[in-house]
Structure prediction request, 421 residues.
Amino acid sequence: MSLDLPLIRKQFPALEAPAIFLDNPAGTQVAQACLERMTGYMVRTNANHEGAFETSRLSDALVAEARAAMADFLNAPRAEEIVFGANMTSLTLHISRSIARTWQPGDEIVLTRLDHDANATPWSLAAQDRGCQVRWVDFRPEDGTLDMESLRAALQGKPRLVAVGYASNALGTVNPVEEITRLAHQAGALVYVDAVHYAPHGPIDVQQIGCDFLVCSAYKFFGPHAGILYGKYELLDELVAYKVRPASDEPPGKFETGTGNFECIAGILGALEYLEWVGETFGRQYSADHSGKYQGRALQFKQAMRVIRTYEAELSTALLDVLEETPGVTIYGLTDRKRLAERVPTAAINLQGWHPRRVAEELDKAGIYVWDGNYYALNVTERLGVEQSGGMVRIGPVHYNTVEEVERFGEALRRIATSEV
Prediction:
């Protein structure tokens, strides 16, 4: 059974607006289940944690439920490996300080120029503090794919850590994170995966990847502005946490500094419940592929992300088609239809004679929302030589978008391309 787009779209109140939301790589619209969980929390269970009264007990129980659901979504072995935080950037800045305590002057770490800056600068700052060296892995400007030979060369230095993105938030490239993890572990490195951009587009299994840490953000998968960190329990347990004294000394609490944003954690649970519904309603054809490995809610999540991934291949094809049909468009990243498994439906372009911000402004007049600039993927725009000219225009449909919306975007873009600058 494929996705029923009218039914899917009914789950998102914001989609009632007369607009086409193609700004999703910077944050998706919020599912109704998320809104209900957040409202319910604030009305019925709003309290701080570990109190000797009912609303506090209910709040703690909801956080525990959200943690267990997130563990199922990522296929983490245990719920205690899930850390909630303000956002991916804050979590990475926080734990990078703990990880860097184990480094010695002269040690090396490996970063990639394809990553969001949140998976680059925190590590380079930590390396600077500890007197360590940074080795950079390049990507191929011609197709936006990671240069694996560059990675293998960087691993020759036996680095302490490799930080890599699951998917590029700028170009849509999906990296072979399982292979990268295997190679990094052979070199003796820890692996830190930024899955923020990939999480709304496909299934994640941290055990299959084998990574040591993985981060994502709920506002990219139909939930509130909050971040999630997975870490292998033994590593979270060993690391020194920068925390106040009364806080827990055990994972995950030792890394959840201050009072938690419990209403957002409730919203994360709601977003996950929406995805569970997608898997149960539309993804049953994939149950045989996963039933031997996943059970219950974890199986529903994998089914959901499989059916989403399948539908989004149609969106990728439609998006590439309209971009290639538009005169004056330069597409950055993979365009080969035979390699759609190596990308998500996120495209970065420039339109000849037009500043990226002006393109976004003209599309806004047509009720179509896209992003422009560097989207914090500064290394990408610098490597492509477009940073000084305003970066790129980014178009990013997700599974609640329709092929018709993509085609309407294409019509608007062609009008801009053929109009006076």
About this structure: The first strand starts at residue 20 and ends at 21. The two ends are 45 Å apart (CA to CA). The chain has a mean pLDDT of 96. Residues 5-29+306-417 form a domain with the Aspartate Aminotransferase, domain 1 fold (CATH 3.90.1150.10).
